[in-house]
Design brief:
4-stranded antiparallel beta sheet; 3 helices; globular
């Protein structure tokens, strides 16, 4: 009996392949690639944002507070392997997941 795969399962696998291509590119260029930036909170001139980058073999998600009189600081930092990140992002936000897939398809397909 042939193995069946769901659309979500295929998307996660496809995204993992794209992440590996992007990571390989980052290794060659030695420049991290920003997958997404989201502003979470803005108050006067200060803001809190999430920045997600691909590095050499890992995806790093950081919550950063900065601006105005606030000294830039990291509130949270998550480090994922290229295989862990697609499932985590799919659970977190399907819209953000699809946005990242589109970005990587444009650059690496």
């Amino acid at each position: 009996m042939p193995k069946q795969i769901t659309l979500d399962g295929w998307l996660v696998s496809h995204f993992a392949v794209l992440l590996k291509k992007a990571s390989s590119h980052v290794t060659k260029t030695k420049t991290p690639l920003v997958l997404y930036r989201n502003t979470l909170e803005e108050e006067e001139e200060a803001y809190q944002e999430t920045v997600c980058t691909i590095t050499d073999g890992y995806v790093v998600v950081q919550v950063i507070t900065s601006g105005g009189g606030v000294v830039p600081s990291f509130q949270q930092q998550f480090v994922f392997t290229l295989d862990e990140f697609p499932n985590w992002l799919m659970r977190k936000s399907k819209d953000l997941f699809l946005q990242c897939v589109d970005l990587l398809e444009e650059q690496f397909s």
